[in-house]
Amino acid sequence: MNMDARIQQSVVANLRNRPAPVEVGPFVIGTDPTTSSPHINYATPRPGAAVTVGDVAALVTAFRAAGRTPRLEYVTSCAPGLEALLTGAGFVVESRHTYLVCAPGTLRTPQALDHIRLYEPATDPERAGLIGAQHEAFGGNPVASEADVARLRRQQGAGGVAVMAVTDDGTCAGGGGAAPPAGGVSEVAGIAVRTRYRRQGLAGAITADVTRRLFDIGVEVAWLEASGEDSWRVYERAGYRPAGRRLYIGSD
User: Fold this and answer.
1) Which pLDDT tens digit goes with each residue over 46-65?
2) 116-242 CATH
3) DSSP one-letter code for 199
4) CA separation, residue 245 to residues 74, 102, 103 (Å)
5) β-pairing, 185-193 with 221-225?
6) Average pLDDT over residues 200-204
7) Structural domain boundaries of the chain?
8) CA neighbours within 13 Å on the CB side: how many for 149?
């Protein structure tokens, strides 16, 4: 299986791990009744599966039945004709991203940072602290809901990784995590640093620590996406390299 197919299959596995996944023809919709976020409730095709106009119509119907907005994320080479079918059905491209991958032999671990400890949250208050820091870093409400905490606890219980960066005074400065591995592959996501702790190498340290923890449990390939040039440079310094393209596309 080539890299694109491995990454796409890991997305399929991630969505099947949602609390209420729905399989519709060649698609898997990962739905979570506790949130309407389109970044959690979305669909993806199984790699290499044939897709028809009827399949797309059935997918939209399934989204409507679940009370969610139709949306997909996928590696484009694994479904080369899908974009045309989706745009023909009224979907609009949100963005296109290059994904990056890292293997054990390319991971680079930066020097430890003074006054910062990196560790996995083991209690719900710690999980809430991590999620609050991520929300604030991404411009959202810095208060974690019970559903947010339960979602992270469930991810960790399924084999996923979570890392929080805590200062000497007990403040969570940022953190990140990774999905439960599937087929030796895991997605790293949510790398976040609160504004006042940026430009100190913390994002790179968190990325490397999450990735190392994955490799320590036998993961062969870690992958992620960069949101801009700054994060791209951070990930490349940690040993990540560009590998393929993904599409984000949705409908009202």
Assistant:
1) 999 999 999 999 999 999 99
2) 3.40.630.30
3) S
4) 9, 15, 18
5) parallel
6) 92
7) 3-90, 116-242
8) 15
